[in-house]
Specification:
The protein has 147 residues and is an alpha/beta fold. It has helices at residues 15-26, 38-43, 52-60, 77-83, 121-130, and strands at residues 3-8, 30-36, 67-71, 88-92, 109-113. A five-stranded parallel β-sheet has the order 3-2-1-4-5. The chain is elongated, with a radius of gyration of 16 Å. Bound molecules: [cytidine-5'-phosphate] glycerylphosphoric acid ester (C2G).
Length: 147
Amino acid sequence: MKRILTYGTFDLLHFGHIEILRRAKELGDYLIVALSTDEFNATKGKKAYHNYETRKKMLEAIRYVDLVIPEENWEQKINDVKEYKADVVVMGSDWADSDRFDYLKEYCNLIFLPRTEGISTSKIKEDLKLQNPVNGVDQIPNPDSEN
Ligand code: C2G
């Protein structure tokens, strides 16, 4: 059984998140998602809209996801790879060459998959700020235009 491990905050779950999870699962048989806790997010200067428990339940509802574990710090990854017997760590390409992940290639395969363009949690937040109906017509850009 090929075991895949990935990391993230997965706030305001969107198509880019689903796409990385779908492609990560395609690389193996069992997908573990290490989900950033609210406390860890605070150290990243991030505050998720949904708390950890909600984000965990949403991930567990996704057919590609087999297990969700807490990501509590930057340093736990080697232990995670060993404890969960991960064969591959998969991340989006925005993490390629990052020193947060590069060292893992001593312990497992490391694969970066192209990010899904045109969507991000911060873009959703920005676009919604723009939502300003004029004559009942939303002014925000159509997020699904590429799909
Ligand atoms: N992602 C993607 N395409 C997008 C948005 C995100 O492929 N349009 C990927 C990211 O590259 C990442 C995963 O989805 O692999 C989760 O993204 P975030 O929730 O933004 O996670 P991040 O804040 O990058 O936290 O220790 C690593 C961190 O926990 C990663």
